[in-house]
């Protein structure tokens, strides 16, 4: 018995020593990870800080600096019909119309993918996933030639159709995943009562997946709102260009970048996306809790 107790004491000491040596290494590892995360966060926060400070500084430069005199001169310079109001309205028409068209088409395409079985379902979903990573620049030349032949170039209709087409793959993928969360038993009960599939989609599925539709709408609108290449290629008239293209004029004017006006216009340019997020915030916070709806 004495021998056993004597052997157990060194083992406990070695375990305690191992614990004390590994504890500092864990703290060092966490510190390194937190430092890397702080550096990544700074890469995003510093440019945003520059935009806010430079917007109220009439002598803003490329470096982050506290304004000597806070002023709204930059906003007064950009708030006019030619620079801000008309491009903003054009952007709302293009992006709003394309977002609505994308959501309607995405829901109609996601419904059979979510509710019906087919041997072509998996290849179709993989094709959609592949199309989400397809670069738009690779197909703009044939698309522009097609629009010239059909007379859709330099028109809002053609631009909205193509913008909706580019946003459709990821929207279908998201809508399908959100629709899968709605129990099919609810639709089967409606079918038993004589409802058609479209009536069940409109009256049961869509009201229950509003949080998902809000996510799809917000993601689609933000992606289209920041799109520069499509309207720049398809719209030739300066009066029809959206804000995503007109902001390019601030990068070079009189052989000099006007940083203050660029920052002020950037803040105004981000307002529609921020307001849309605030409007849909309650929908985004919704949860898919349908467990009680299928009991009994």
Describe the protein in words.
With 296 residues, this protein is an all-alpha fold. The protein has two domains: 2-55; 74-287, MetI-like (MetI-like fold, Orthogonal Bundle), CATH 1.10.3720.10. It is built from 13 helices and no strands. It has helices at 2-55, 73-78, 81-115, 121-132, 140-150, 156-180, 184-192, 197-208, 210-225, 229-234, 243-246, 259-279, 281-284. α3 (81-115) packs across α9, α4 crosses α6 and α7 (184-192) runs antiparallel to α8. The chain is globular, with a radius of gyration of 28 Å. The N and C termini lie far apart (65 Å).
The CATH class of the largest domain is identified as Mainly Alpha
- Strand-and-helix sequence, N→C? HHHHHHHHHHHHH
Query: Residue-averaged pLDDT, rounded?
Result: 81
State the helicity in percent bands.
over 70%
- Can you tell me the overall shape? globular
CATH overall fold name of the largest domain: MetI-like fold
| Reported CATH architecture of the largest domain | Orthogonal Bundle
- Head-to-tail CA distance between termini: 65 Å
Low-confidence stretches: 286-296
């Amino acid at each position: 018995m004495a021998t056993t107790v004597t052997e157990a004491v060194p083992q406990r000491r070695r375990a305690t020593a191992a614990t004390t040596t590994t504890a500092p290494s864990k703290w060092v590892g966490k510190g390194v990870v937190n430092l890397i995360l702080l550096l990544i966060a700074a890469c995003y926060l510093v440019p945003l800080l520059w935009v806010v400070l430079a917007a109220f500084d009439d002598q803003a430069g490329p470096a982050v600096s506290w304004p000597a005199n806070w002023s709204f001169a930059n906003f007064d310079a950009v708030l006019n019909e030619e620079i801000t109001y008309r491009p903003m309205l054009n952007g709302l028409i293009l992006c709003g119309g394309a977002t609505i068209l994308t959501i309607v088409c995405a829901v109609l395409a996601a419904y059979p993918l979510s509710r019906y079985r087919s041997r072509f379902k998996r290849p179709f979903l993989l094709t959609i996933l592949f199309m989400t990573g397809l670069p738009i620049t690779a197909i703009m030349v044939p698309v522009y030639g097609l629009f010239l032949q059909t007379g859709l170039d330099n028109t809002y209709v053609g631009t909205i159709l193509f913008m909706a087409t580019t946003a459709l793959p990821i929207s279908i993928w998201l809508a399908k995943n959100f629709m899968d969360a709605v129990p099919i038993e609810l639709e089967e009960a409606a079918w038993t009562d004589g409802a058609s599939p479209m009536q069940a989609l409109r009256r049961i599925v869509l009201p229950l997946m509003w949080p998902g539709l809000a996510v799809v709408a917000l993601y689609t609108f933000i992606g289209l709102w920041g799109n520069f290449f499509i309207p720049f290629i398809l719209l030739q008239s300066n009066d029809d260009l959206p804000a995503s293209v007109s902001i390019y004029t601030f990068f070079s004017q009189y052989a000099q970048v006007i940083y203050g006006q660029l920052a002020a216009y950037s803040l105004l340019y981000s307002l529609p996306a921020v307001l849309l997020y605030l409007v849909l915030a309650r929908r985004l916070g919704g949860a898919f809790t349908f467990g009680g709806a299928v009991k009994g």
